[in-house]
């Protein structure tokens, strides 16, 4: 009886060490980022229209210079 219990515990311990397969999951989108999300402001920049790639790139450049450049913030 004791041998069966030890074997069962050993099998359970080894089963707990097994690694499950990891696969990518979640939302997958084939849409380009400049197409937007159909959300209203405040989630989009004022004046930007979904699908306008040139304006989208300009908004990114502006946000990078004004919001993420610490040299601009120094008085």
TrEMBL record:
Keywords assigned by UniProt, alphabetized: Signal
Signal sequence extent: 1-18
Region (Disordered): 25-51
Protein name: Lipoprotein
Organism: Ramlibacter monticola
